[in-house]
Amino acid sequence: MATTTHFLNSVSSLCLTSIPRSSEKQPLPAHANVTATRRRLVITCGAKRKSPDDYHATLKALNSRDRRPRKSLGQHYMLNSEINEHLASAADIQKGDVVLEIGPGTGSLTNVLINGGATVLAIEKDPHMVALVRERFADSQCLKVLQEDFVKCHVRSHMCSLLESVATSCGRPRLAKVVANIPFNISTEVIKLLLPMGDIFSEVVLLLQEETALRLVESSIRTSEYRPINIFVNFYSDPEYKLKVPRSYFFPQPNVDAAIVAFKLKQAEEYPSVSSVKSFFSMVNSAFNGKRKMLRRSLQHISTTLEIEKALEFAGLSATSRPEELTLDDFVKLHNSIGR
């Protein structure tokens, strides 16, 4: 309780004092090779910029705790602080922002967020990393670290308490942001937890496996990659692929490249108009359970074949439509037609 009280009391200082920056954002070095493809950027630098969170510093931090990255926790530490700067930039981190970070690791991204003027709530499962980050930022009043499994913790409760304290201290309510380099193996769980929280967060910026990033943002209808998660993502947010991150920037090096994706969360009034969000996604999931089946067959447990055909016609869709042929708007029309 004393720790929580100290943290919440310290939040008010954000309104009165400025937070010193250890370093200003630097432009990409002149020798960097930058290639733009549609909305995507690929950055490969000829030489790494010196930073307090490079390879040697990361190893030193881990060795100080006699730790090695744990595969079971999906631990891959970022060695290039420029990528951390890009993560913060994608979320447009400003002085006074409240940021949720998932899996701070050695604190390299945490450092960038705090230097950018943010108050950070970091949730870390590994107790050794919790101790390391707490020790590293022991003098900072802008960080609270919780030792919890993110996918099981009460993130809404944690964030509501923090946002309420900031609103009380600074006299203005605000939405928080999420900026995180998350373990690839919990990406879908994290996305499903965070995207419906438009009343808490305005932006969710994640470093994901590149294949996952592309599937979430760019999968289109009539492709094998088009799945219910695409409907989910676009229902709750406007996603944007920001940046490709080479696998060589991680320790240990994963078998795949990564990418930064920014999700601009929608407010409840911006969601597609459906009578029941729960029944809508139940229908979508049922439709894709028989992906190659026509909807009049895969949705028979919801209504009769004749009623589904009438609903398809009312929605302006073919009676032989399959789920991979429908956009988000099409699914909304179909759901509302079945329930009318």
UniProtKB/TrEMBL annotation:
<feature type="binding site">
    <location>
        <position position="76"/>
    </location>
    <ligand>
        <name>S-adenosyl-L-methionine</name>
    </ligand>
</feature>
<feature type="domain" description="Ribosomal RNA adenine methylase transferase N-terminal">
    <location>
        <begin position="83"/>
        <end position="267"/>
    </location>
</feature>
<feature type="binding site">
    <location>
        <position position="149"/>
    </location>
    <ligand>
        <name>S-adenosyl-L-methionine</name>
    </ligand>
</feature>
<keyword id="KW-0694">RNA-binding</keyword>
<dbReference type="GO" id="GO:0000179">
    <property type="term" value="F:rRNA (adenine-N6,N6-)-dimethyltransferase activity"/>
</dbReference>
<dbReference type="InterPro" id="IPR011530">
    <property type="entry name" value="rRNA_adenine_dimethylase"/>
</dbReference>
<keyword id="KW-0949">S-adenosyl-L-methionine</keyword>
<dbReference type="InterPro" id="IPR001737">
    <property type="entry name" value="KsgA/Erm"/>
</dbReference>
<keyword id="KW-0698">rRNA processing</keyword>
<keyword id="KW-0808">Transferase</keyword>
<dbReference type="InterPro" id="IPR029063">
    <property type="entry name" value="SAM-dependent_MTases_sf"/>
</dbReference>
<dbReference type="InterPro" id="IPR023165">
    <property type="entry name" value="rRNA_Ade_diMease-like_C"/>
</dbReference>
<dbReference type="InterPro" id="IPR020598">
    <property type="entry name" value="rRNA_Ade_methylase_Trfase_N"/>
</dbReference>
<feature type="binding site">
    <location>
        <position position="124"/>
    </location>
    <ligand>
        <name>S-adenosyl-L-methionine</name>
    </ligand>
</feature>
<dbReference type="GO" id="GO:0003723">
    <property type="term" value="F:RNA binding"/>
</dbReference>
<protein>
    <recommendedName>
        <fullName>rRNA adenine N(6)-methyltransferase</fullName>
        <ecNumber>2.1.1.-</ecNumber>
    </recommendedName>
</protein>
<feature type="binding site">
    <location>
        <position position="78"/>
    </location>
    <ligand>
        <name>S-adenosyl-L-methionine</name>
    </ligand>
</feature>
<feature type="binding site">
    <location>
        <position position="181"/>
    </location>
    <ligand>
        <name>S-adenosyl-L-methionine</name>
    </ligand>
</feature>
<feature type="binding site">
    <location>
        <position position="103"/>
    </location>
    <ligand>
        <name>S-adenosyl-L-methionine</name>
    </ligand>
</feature>
<dbReference type="Pfam" id="PF00398">
    <property type="entry name" value="RrnaAD"/>
</dbReference>
<comment type="similarity">
    <text>Belongs to the class I-like SAM-binding methyltransferase superfamily. rRNA adenine N(6)-methyltransferase family.</text>
</comment>
<dbReference type="InterPro" id="IPR020596">
    <property type="entry name" value="rRNA_Ade_Mease_Trfase_CS"/>
</dbReference>
<keyword id="KW-0489">Methyltransferase</keyword>
